[in-house]
Amino acid sequence: MKTLLTKLLAIGSIALLMLPSCKKDEKKVYATNVATSGLQASSTTLVLTKADLTKTAVTFNLTQADFGYSAAIKNVLQIDAPDDNFANPKEFNISGKVTTQAFTTLDFNNLVLALNLPTGVASPVQARIKSSISATVAPVYSNVVSLTVTPFALTAFVYVPGAYQGWNPAAADSLESATGNGVYTGVINFTGGDLNFKITSNRDWNHTNYGDAGGGTVSGSGGNLLAPAGGNIQINLDLNANTIVMTPVQWSIIGDATPGGWGGDTDMQFDNAHQMWVVTANLTAGGNIKFRLNHDWGTNLGGSDGTLSLNGANIPIAADGSYKITLDVNANTYTITKQ
Description:
Protein name: SusF/SusE family outer membrane protein
Structural class: mainly beta
CATH topology of the largest domain: Immunoglobulin-like
Keywords: Signal
Distance between the termini: 122 Å
Helix content: under 10%
InterPro entries: SusE
Strand content: 35-45%
Domain SusE outer membrane protein: 24-130
Number of domains: 3
Pfam families: SusE
Number of helices: 2
């Protein structure tokens, strides 16, 4: 019996010693002798126009990168301005093993407008391909293709239905993106005690409806948004980053030509259709007016001949009467038209 027990213990010891040597070695794959992708464009001078919205503006041809072994490669077309050096490029995913990617005028115009390029002006743009196979292997980049692109303004709108106007998208005020780059702005006059609202991509509830996703962000499945206060609220909506910023804002006229004199503001209302502030008021001859923000002299505008500047000169009124007064704070211009 003792001899049998000794033999069993010996066999067990040998088995334990053999366990580490039986562990399966994991194979690790490393990318070696990597060949980068190549990129060519069908044209490098692009003048984009609304008349050609559905036509092909440019076609990119690429050769696949080679990481030294068979692997599924993800290719991304990166577009950026030269002075940014691809620090924050706009990206377009190229699916599968596609080696030719065409863009319509509309799609490529939207892509370059996202770079905040001026419209109607030729601007330099760079393109390259970023190729990757996994998060653990460094991506490789193609040659850089330089283009000159003249984009056009493509005004876009979203709409702001809410309790202030009966939750009716068809009649709601809008936010405007002057260049269609996904960044929208406008001023909404929230009246009444209920300050809930949403933002719709169309004048109905049947498309994308943006709501509160928390932390100053929006999503297509979010709850109601809430204005920070009643009155005029400037809304800045960035659908590239899905962020929203809401700021109380009120422009007014003031001066000894206005009903309130230098001691009381006459408030203006924001015209979303024309993106400017408007008021009709009785003005007095021999007096002056200025424009100011939020009933405070910290930001006031004055000037002459329809052009304004910060802390500019008083604007004189030559004759008594009822006047329609407009203010465009983006262009720093105004009009005073007798009715």
